Amino acid sequence: MTTHGPVLPIWSCGGCDLPWPCPTRRRELRAEYADAPVSLALYLGGYLVQAAEDMPWAPAGALHRRFVGWTRQPPDAPQRMTAAVPAESGRDEPR
Fold this sequence. Notes:
This protein has 95 residues and is mainly alpha-helical. The protein has a domain at 21-72. It is built from three helices and two strands, in the order E-E-H-H-H. The chain has helices spanning 23-32, 37-54, 60-67; strands spanning 6-7, 12-13. A two-stranded antiparallel ribbon has the order 1-2. Strand 1 and strand 2 form a beta hairpin. Helix 2 packs antiparallel against helix 3. The radius of gyration is 14 Å and the shape is globular.
């Protein structure tokens, strides 16, 4: 059992406090689903839906990259961690 599970509703890693799934959990998931990449994407897609409900302010593209997008990259590719930060109030309003 991993200590790198998600801490809800902020979706940080319980093991290292990075945005979940952290690099360690990504490596673990790649190993667990080595022969089933579609199952891995479906599994993480469920977490993506939960995270979108918990963080409605987070951009959909950032959440997709964070939860599912990395699964299509080769394991040796550099991992880009994106933290979703709430927009400043009034920032998205038309001028």
